[in-house]
Amino acid sequence: MPLPLRPYVTTYAVLPNPVNMTWQDWVDTFVGFNLPVRNHLDPDMPWREFVDRLGLIEAWTPDSDDFENWQDWVVALKAALSM
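-> structure tokens emitted (83 positions)
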């Protein structure tokens, strides 16, 4: 999948709450409802790889290395977006 040449900020239609969701359910929902990432990211990637790739196109994305699990990363993502 091609990546944009520079980071940009996207408004997301859906940023699911990770409570009672598996990573695959969360990422399928996130990618399925958000066209800007659907064209650039594969929801079948492991969570750290997905987050790192998202960080290449979204400068504000929290770094996966700062989190023990994907749920905590989603909380930080929501905070970064003030959602």
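Residues 1-83 form one domain.
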